[in-house]
Amino acid sequence: MKITIIGTGGVGGYFGGRLALAGNDVTFIARGAHLNAIKTNGLIVKSTLGEFTIKPAKATSELDVVHYSDLVMICTKAWQVKEIAQQIAPLIGAETMVLPLQNGVLAAEELAEFIPRKHIVGGLCRIFSKIESPGTISHMGADPTILFSELNNEHTERTMWLKYTFETAGLTNIWSDDIQADLWKKFLMICSSALLAVTKTNYGELRSIPETRALLHEMYTEIYNVAIAAGINLPENSVEKTMKAVDTFPPESTSSLTRDVWEGKPSEIEYQNGTVVKFGEKYNVPTPVNRFVYYSILPMEMKARQ
Length: 306
Prior knowledge:
Rossmann fold; globular; five-stranded mixed sheet; about 45% helix; 13 helices; N-(1-d-carboxylethyl)-l-norvaline Dehydrogenase, domain 2; 10 strands
């Protein structure tokens, strides 16, 4: 497949690298020192599953390559999706699939404001990864997994082809039967990132201290209640399953939002706990823990964006 990776960070760099390693024609969209390093030294991926380098790697800062792509994977931060959608909308080919892998539950709808829905495939990923240094991606934990489906949950010929592409690249993937439910399952989990940021803990510390573990459980329960009010088909044991999943994370692990807040960078707080608060207001569901965490980070977010 001809694939364009928009956003060659921890997510796009890892999955795009695996797809390129399998022989797909992959172009990486990057910028600055990261782009220069990829052009000079190739894309280096360090992983618990083995290290590899894509050299030469096709990398550019220009979006024109989207016009020739079978698949566009959008791996930017959630708050960049709308801008990217406007930029690539005129470049989408007749058969191009657009697969967003953002955190949160709004990416597909934000893309659909500018791109015809027929081009959009629902998606999400699970991975602990980051840019270690310019040109180098580090995968630190979790089995890198992509979940995807048509937005109406139909299994179609093109998503079957997408599954084949992921399979041949050795990527764990799940052809979702309910992509909205799967998005909310991940959303429920990732909103703990802001709790890490506020408490200045990693997952090992957060889950082992009784008081912060209780806060985590309350946070997840609020998000579950919001999801049910929104008509999302989440299992009744979602909160307990998520708590058990957190117990399997590497103790020292954090998340990209956590690190962004600590480093004074713009974060995805509006697309995580901020979204919980807004949906809670919409459906009249109390969200006190999420509201406190969101409001606590908001001043730092405003400073970062200035």
